[in-house]
């Protein structure tokens, strides 16, 4: 299993939302950023421009990771699983989420997505509008993430 989430996290200290408020500009839209944008995520885990940042590191008391990802239009994660599942809270924009074998779901600001444990899935921005998401990975003592292959353009397109 690849413990890639730890590699994706920048380890920045959490600050108040007012200290971090900025606008993330893309060619197609503007998202009201709540948290620091972070460094561009690795092509090993993302297609397009995605910017993950750690907000809460897991420890022996709080066995939950929390972070934020900004996806520019068209950006998406690769297929992946989480041993204890994952919760996403969409804070701005429009995007997609898909569990393997099921249709793509459109997700938008205010949506909450629960990814079941050990279920292959992906998520990211729509082609024309970026996406911001908070993620929570519980029970990290069971592991964090297993990254898999990229989501193809054909898989990404809504038919």
Question: What tags apply to this protein structure?
Answer:
two-stranded antiparallel ribbon, globular, mainly beta, 159 residues, 7-stranded antiparallel β-sheet, Jelly Rolls
Structure, described:
The protein is mainly beta. It has one domain (4-156): Jelly Rolls (Sandwich). The chain contains 3 helices and 13 strands; from the N terminus they run ααβββββββββββββα. The strands form 4 sheets. Strands 4, 5, 8, 9, 10, 11 and 12 form a 7-stranded antiparallel β-sheet that branches. Strand 4 and strand 5 (65-71) form a beta hairpin. The longest helix has 5 residues, at 4-8. The radius of gyration is 14 Å and the shape is globular. The termini are far apart.
Give Rg in angstroms: 14 Å
What name goes with the CATH superfamily?
A: Jelly Rolls
| Structure class | mainly beta
What is the straight-line distance between the termini?
33 Å
As a percent range, the share of helical residues equals under 10%
Task: Give the assembly state of these chains.
Answer: single chain
Q: Regarding CATH, which class? A: Mainly Beta
How does the overall form come out from the CA principal axes?
globular
Q: What is the third-level CATH name, the topology?
A: Jelly Rolls
- SSE series: HHEEEEEEEEEEEEEH
- The overall strand count is 13
